[in-house]
Amino acid sequence: MVQQVTSGIKISVETEFEGTFYKEYKVHFAFAYTVTIENQSENTVQLLSRHWDISDALNNPETVDGEGVIGRQPLLMPGESHTYSSGCLLTSPFGGMKGHYNMTNIETQEEFKVYIPAFKLSAPFAVN
Fold first, then answer.
1. In this protein, which residues make up the domain named ApaG (predicted)?
2. pLDDT per residue as tens digits for the range 2-48
3. Average per-residue pLDDT in the chain?
4. Domains of the chain: which residue ranges?
5. Which end of the chain, N or C, is more open, meaning fewer C-beta atoms within 10 Å of its C-beta?
6. Rg of the chain on CA atoms, in Å
């Protein structure tokens, strides 16, 4: 598990290899990740959007931007957390992800970024 705290918001990420399959005549490697967003600050905050930078060992970078996470824009009061799971496909058995969430402080309406720590994606059969 990797963790990082930005502006009182703690991000924890766990990953899991899900398997391989063929798509468009190429083998793909499926990975799942579970993110917990914990509000350790004294303010109520809301997650507005996300930004991901995804890379694999074959140098096929991908950027993903979107509203919320899994169709939600969670509101977190002090001490609350939100956990969700998602996944990604790579064209190699190794890769990684990093990114940030755009959030807002409900009391001040100030927007800020919360960084998602870089984490590795690796198929266990490909690890020496």
1. 3-128
2. 999 999 999 999 999 999 999 888 899 999 999 999 999 999 999 99
3. 95
4. 2-121
5. C
6. 16
